[in-house]
Structure formats: structure tokens, C-alpha cells
Design a protein that fits this description.
By secondary structure, the chain is of the alpha+beta class. The chain has four helices and 16 strands. It has helices spanning 66-76, 88-91, 124-135, 176-184; strands at residues 3-15, 31-35, 57-60, 98-101, 108-111, 171-172, 209-210, 220-221, 225-226, 235-236, 275-283, 290-295, 312-314, 323-324, 328-329, 342-354. The strands form five sheets. The protein has a six-stranded antiparallel sheet with strand order 6-15-3-2-1-16. It has a four-stranded mixed sheet with strand order 13-12-11-14. Strands 4-5 form a two-stranded antiparallel ribbon.
Length: 355
């Protein structure tokens, strides 16, 4: 039995009057959880010692969804000069989730199927532009300094190379330390493993079960596992429970579909579903000068990819059907000010639960 002390940070957004005439636009809501225990130790099980963070922060409770990313596209991608939309978002039947209509200058975007699945086919730069948009108050307009090109990251049209997170960030992409801590850390004194880190992001050292969602299995996720037993789980790919590749139809589960399988801090799907971009900078990826970290395993990978020691990397402009992202946020309400056409209000809630 383990006792979890979980904080829940609910992030609400509300519209304010803009100076320019615009159509009505509902701002999205991002649920986050606070990550405390500042100054925690590193995880010696990672490949070069990660997970130590000297400050409190918030992180996305879930991966960024198709619904949220589609709202972003409709706000800033009428023309889309920096390629926020990938045609594979509609043509790849395994993960298809966003269609585009119209012509450049009047593009519109629509969700296909369940919009609570995570978005895929996004590069690190797409994810950085999304958090810039949040940082700027979710404005409507062309991709420019006031919408996607400045904020947490100063991009100014960049679609390759390495851009670091600015000091005044409100929303951002997690560093690998922030990501690892949120996924695996639980103090031993609060029911965690003896070294303060679990092997899997379900607060467990036991290999999770591969399922098509579960409300009762606290150690489960969307990944490939085949134990050869015909019992409705661990039968191959999670959604199809088949070992046939490529899987037929959609392979992604809605975020939070494994509603009992959260981390100590209350994050979901940090193991399986899709891997997630982070801000780690790696040298020499695929012959390029540098790359970005990706973490967490995915629907087509085995359990090892979800575990603490495993970390991947790729060039930041790359886009795949196994990679998405989640956000981090400055947790202090006083740090959030009116920006652009909107503002954010942070409201804290506390909950204790036992499992």
C-alpha cells in the first residue's frame, strides 16, 4: 500500500477585451499538477543522473490533446508559414486526428474522432510555438512575435537548431529533470521506493500491463506487451490486443484513460501512449549538430522505453506518430500577468488519497 499526497493545480483561462476586432474564440484549459519537494536528489538509475529540481513548478496532468492543438491551429495557422500542421495528421490512419480545410490565408482545422487523444506529428518547434501562444494569452492572429515567435522561447521564424527557454517563461516545455521528477519521483519517507524513484511512472517497480484503457488497474498503460496469455490484456498492441503490425485503426488512448495509473504527483500517460519532447540538448543526433530529448515510451514500444533509465533523442524539427508533448508552468499566481488578448488565473486545490 502506498499513500499519496497529491496537489492539484487547476489552470483556468478567461478572455479579456482585445484592441483589435476579432471573432469569438474560446480559450483552452490546461490541467496541471504542482510538483513540490524542491531540492530533491537525483536518480542514479538514469543514464547520467537526472530528476533533481531546485524549485517548485507545475506540469501538465495530461499530454496536449488534439482538441487543444486544433484550437491553437485555428487561432494562429490561417496561413501556417512555419508548418504547425502536418498532413499526416489526417493521412496516417493509426493516429489521424486533425483535418484541414480551405486554402492558405483561410485555413480551418477540425478534430477527427476523439479529441482527447494526444496530438502527434508535432516537432519540438511546433510544441515551442504552442507554449509561446499560451504564454502570450492565446491570441488570435498570424504567427508573429505577439503570438508564436516570442515568449517562453525566442524563435523569430526558426524551424531548426537549438533555442533555449527564456528566463521569464510562464509556460514552457519541461527540462528532462522536470519531466523525470514528475514521472518517477516519490520520497521514500512518503511511501516511495528506497532510492526515491520508481522504475515506471505508475509509482511502481513492476512492469505495467498493456491495456486499452483501465479505470481500476493502477499499473497499466498504452504500450506493446505480449505475454502469450489470452486474458484481454498484455496481448500485443494495447488498443487492438493483437501482435499484428501495422495495427488496424487508431492506436492512441484518450489522455487519462488509465485513470488509476498516475504518478506520485498525479500525472497520467508519462508511460506509453506517445513519447514527449523535452528541453534536453544532445549532441550529434543523426549527423546533426544537436538534438532534443524525448521521454516516456509510446504505443508501439515495449515497457523498457517507459522506464527510468531510458531516454531518447532526435533532431527537433522531426515529426512522428509516436511523439507528442506536455507543458510545464510557473506555479506562482503572482507570476502570471495580463498578456496579449488574454490572461490566466491559477487556482490551487489540495487532495489526499490512499492507494
Amino acid at each position: 500500500m502506498k499513500r499519496l499526497h497529491l496537489n492539484r493545480l487547476l489552470l483556468f483561462t478567461f478572455a479579456v477585451v482585445g484592441m483589435m476586432k476579432q471573432t469569438a474564440f474560446a480559450l483552452i484549459t490546461i490541467d496541471t499538477v504542482p510538483v513540490g519537494n524542491a531540492g530533491n536528489v537525483t536518480d542514479d538509475g538514469t543514464y547520467y543522473g537526472q530528476g533533481a529540481v531546485g524549485y517548485d513548478y507545475g506540469i501538465g496532468k495530461y499530454e496536449v490533446t488534439l482538441n487543444q492543438y486544433t484550437a491553437f491551429l485555428n487561432a494562429v495557422a490561417k496561413t501556417d508559414p512555419y508548418g504547425l500542421y502536418n498532413l499526416a495528421m489526417v493521412t496516417d490512419v493509426k493516429v489521424r486526428g486533425i483535418s484541414r480545410g480551405g486554402v492558405a490565408g483561410s485555413y480551418t482545422y477540425s478534430v477527427i474522432g476523439n479529441g482527447n487523444r494526444p496530438v502527434t506529428y508535432v516537432s519540438w518547434f511546433d510544441a515551442a510555438r504552442f507554449v509561446n501562444w499560451l504564454h502570450n494569452g492565446q491570441p488570435i492572429g498570424a504567427q508573429s512575435a505577439g503570438t508564436t515567435e516570442s515568449g517562453a522561447y525566442t524563435l523569430n521564424g526558426a524551424v531548426s537548431g537549438i533555442v533555449t527557454r527564456n528566463a521569464n517563461w510562464i509556460y514552457g516545455l519541461p527540462t528532462e529533470d522536470e519531466w523525470v521528477k514528475a514521472a518517477y519521483y516519490q520520497p521514500a519517507a512518503q511511501g516511495g521506493d528506497v532510492d526515491n524513484y520508481w522504475l515506471y511512472p505508475t509509482a511502481s517497480n513492476v512492469m505495467p500491463n498493456s491495456r486499452n484503457g483501465s479505470g481500476s488497474d493502477a499499473n497499466s498503460g498504452n504500450f506493446f506487451r505480449n505475454d502469450g496469455i489470452a486474458n484481454g490484456f498484455n496481448g500485443g498492441f494495447a488498443v487492438s490486443q493483437s501482435t499484428t503490425y501495422p495495427p488496424v485503426g487508431n492506436v492512441l488512448t484518450a489522455v487519462g484513460a488509465f485513470s488509476s495509473a498516475d504518478s506520485f504527483y498525479g500525472t497520467f500517460d508519462q508511460g506509453g501512449n506517445v513519447m514527449e519532447w523535452n528541453d534536453l540538448v544532445n549532441e550529434g543526433v543523426n549527423g546533426a549538430a544537436s538534438g532534443r530529448g524525448i521521454r516516456g515510451g509510446a504505443w508501439e514500444y515495449e515497457a523498457q522505453a517507459m522506464s527510468t533509465p531510458f531516454g531518447g533523442q532526435n533532431v527537433p524539427e522531426s515529426e512522428f506518430n509516436v511523439v507528442g508533448f506536455r507543458i510545464v508552468v510557473v506555479p506562482e499566481p503572482s507570476a502570471v500577468a495580463f498578456t496579449g488578448l488574454g490572461a490566466t488565473l491559477l487556482v490551487w486545490a489540495r487532495r489526499k488519497s490512499a492507494a
